[in-house]
Amino acid sequence: MNREQLLDEVVRLAREAGEAILEIYRGDIAVRAKEDSSPVTLADERAEALILAGLAELTPDIPVIAEELAAAGNLPDLTAGRPFWLVDPLDGTKEFIKRNGEFTVNVALIENGEPVLGVVLAPAIGRLFAARGPGTAFAQEGDEPRRPIVTRAAPEGGLTVVSSRSHANDQLLTDFLAGRPVGARASAGSSLKFCLVAAGEADLYPRFGRTMEWDIAAGHAVLRAAGGEVVTVDGKPMRYGKAGFENPHFIALSSRSLEQL
After folding, report:
1. What are the extents of the domains in the chain?
2. Mean pLDDT of the region 235-241
């Protein structure tokens, strides 16, 4: 199976998971707390089970790191340099519980520490973003045709900065933006923030707070393919397969906005 076919299959899996999530979203949502006090629902678990089964059929030799599996301590042994999948079956559980639609299904393929394929689906608002390498990023709204997306050059009126709706660290963000040419501020849930930058709807997404690799890998893959990047606050590329799978603080941006920082 070539990379294009693989991406189409992962899109199909994400859509199946999205339908399973929406079935629960339309009814009563029962919420439990995990050991780290973060919320989890039946939708997280059903979506993850669907994706894991599908990936096992598609790529039986590639291990999977998934959020709920990891929470249960079920982590595969990753041989150095070996490809692996990162899966967040329902990113933005707080947005799901609030029923604001800004939650996503995220699946990414990692090779040599870098995201080379990614799918981000927001099932409640009908937005899909996906990519399989440089120049391949696309968006799809509902049943409309896929359209290519690229990051934009920084607007003359200043950068549009998007930040987390439910996990904002306002003081650190304010300190970071001080003295920088900010033209507008926006907020969004889940990995949609990466995709807004990828689609040229925003320019910068700084994140000062705890995230895990499965939270960001699919969005990073889309952004990277659209001409952007994710770097740590000291300018180093974000890498995957880190011990504990926890990310440092980072900045997601259009590469054409670098000169504005």
Report:
1. 3-148, 159-260
2. 94
